[in-house]
Design a protein that fits this description.
It is built from 17 helices and 3 strands. By secondary structure, the chain is mostly helical. Helix 3 packs across helix 5, helix 3 packs across helix 6 and helix 5 packs antiparallel against helix 6. The chain starts with 10 loop residues before the first helix and ends with a helix. The N terminus is likely disordered.
Amino acid sequence: MHLNHIDCMTFLQMADERSYVDEIMSETDKFTAKAMLKHLDEFCNQKYNGRTKEEIIEELHSLKNKPEFKKYLYSIMKGFIKHLDSRLRVVTTRAYFKHFKRYLKSSGFEFRDDELKDYGVKLGKVIDGEHHTLVIEELEKLFKIIPNKHLALYHVLTSSGIRIKECVQLRKRDFDEKTERIKITIPGKYAKNGKQRITFCSKESEQYLRPKLRNLKDDQLVFTNNPNPHRARQNEEERFDRIRNNAGFTKRFDTGHHEITIHSFRSWFVTKCNRIDYGFGHSLAGHDQYMARYDRLTESELLELYIKAEPTLQIFDRVEDQTQELQSLRDEIKKDRDRIQVLEELKDEVKNSSIEMMGKLSPKQYKKFRVALDEALKNPQK
């Protein structure tokens, strides 16, 4: 597509990109807007032969009063959606496109949302049912190749239900090491729903977490050095992409999304805790609809439920292994009991028959008989 009628207006006269971002109040929305603009730069460069988004905006302005204006505007929208869909999840494309529309309107373009479909501008649907339940073998394989300095983070994610964006904002003061299990307080300003909550981490994770906490001051970040939570989260997601690929977990859903993501650890936690008390895992993970129910419990009651769930949250010291070992021991005990019973029966049988024989044996024969009998009693299976 080649737009004509290039105007001499400068981009600064039409829309100031920095002003557009600065007008956004939410830090999360600012981060999303900046990410969208970065994708828009890439899209314009690839689609329009190295041209910038500023040049495309200028050309659109030159066409504002032309009959073909909307055709070109909606063509750009459709192309940008296709560009985003090839790189991002549907929910992310939707979020970026919302900011793209705001950006266009702040640049002086008017259009109605209800006419987008008439011009073929359609967003993909969020498909329900895309779900992969982690199994312990997958977790073991991942944890075996996670670098040692990042093990504390991944053990906390797996055993606490904290979101990655919440986790990278935690500071040492948010961890209470004096409780039976390390208690983690997620301040409302870190939480997705804006509500403060507490959760715990497992004994298994403590061996990696305590040394990390020991060397930090109260106001220091625990899992990252980057004070920008959006960038810190993005860095961890990119790091996990490399870990997942190295582990060989490259399978995707039909939509192109990976079956295993960094968010899968949280899902693992919720599933395991819900088996102890349905809704408990959702509550510790920060799901609104379940938090009110567990807000009525005391901290000790929450901890009691957590400790019940804890054995199923272990990665390497698992309750399943302990159960199998216990069952094997029980089987061996049963076999020993059966052997003892056979031995007792054999002993009685030999004793009865030997009484009849002993009177007929010479002293020398009797001595040999006793040696053979003792040997038989010691080794009843021979």
